[in-house]
User: Fold these one by one.
Assistant:
Number 1:
Amino acid sequence: MSEAVVANRYADALFQIANEQGKTEQLMEEFDVLGEIFRTNHELNAFLEHPRVSNSRKKQFIGDVFNDFSVNVKNTLKILVERHRTEVIPSIIDHYIKLMNDAKGIAEATVYSVRELSDDEREQLEKTFAKRLNKQMVKLQNVVDPSVLGGVKVRVGNSIYDGTISGKLQRLERNIGIAN
């Protein structure tokens, strides 16, 4: 089974349990911390994936280190250790965040521009795309991309909205090519 499918199943189950218990926000906060730990602490990943360290020792470590986390998160981590699937933890966190955002009507997007956008420009883009995507809010992450000659390109999930000059020129070129 692919990593994405496994991660989605765990995230879906955790979201459903947290929703039933009214603890979706608590789990979100725990996942923010957990995500940062797994992104920055390469020694932890190496330890959890090391074949010579026993699963019982790894699970004991998780119980000790993540003592303040909810039972559901700790048990999920222990199951992942037991099944040798700790590499999917960041994907589980990402999918859980997506589920939370969907439930709240929030979309995350990346905007590529030739320079850093001002707060007003970012706010205007967020409002425009919130309406366009029928969401309560859009959270934009600005990426400065020198290959963008002018305008902006916005990526929301798998969709790309290309308002760059080079994108417009390419569309014009295709249209002219069709006319010939």
Note: The helical segments are 3-21, 24-40, 42-49, 55-65, 71-82, 89-104, 119-133, 165-179.
Number 2:
Amino acid sequence: MKRVLILLAAVLMALPVWAVELGDDGLHKPDWLRDTFKDLREDLAEANSEGKRLMILIEQRGCIYCERMHRDVFPLPVIDSYIRENFFVVQIDLYGASELTDFDGQVLSQRDAARKWGMMFTPSILFMPEEVEEGQTAAQAAVAVMPGAFEAGTTLDLLTWVNEKRYALESEEDFQRYHARMIRERTVDLGD
């Protein structure tokens, strides 16, 4: 019995641990998150100056699906590096009282912004274009929305689809068709 316990302990210690620190707000804080003043117009300008896409990640304290994304999906090297290289990520608390400034200039709490945008699920991700028309909100301007937790393959495909601006192409390949093609062509199982 002692040998079994030692073997089990050795196996558990060998498993990867994707511990992501929690902030004072109870949200996961991977080091690729940007700490900004939450003026989305300024965040978009900074993302553009770095040649990256603005990604608004909406989460809440105690969200088991947020935890799963931070434990099982975001830390995968292929996804982690893709986010770091291509996205400027700003985190919003679904129930946060801290203020943000929406693209339309309205200053409101993160909680009120999430309501205004119709966000009900966490995690949710809004992917922004390089330019937002005057008067638009983040939800109106978003080129894509990820409503909830996705598996690694779907997440990677959505990140790629947005980053490559496939939403703006004149082809018949919407995200679902693109994702189905990527599943067929993928040489590594990402648990689509």
Note: The first helix runs from residue 2 to 14.
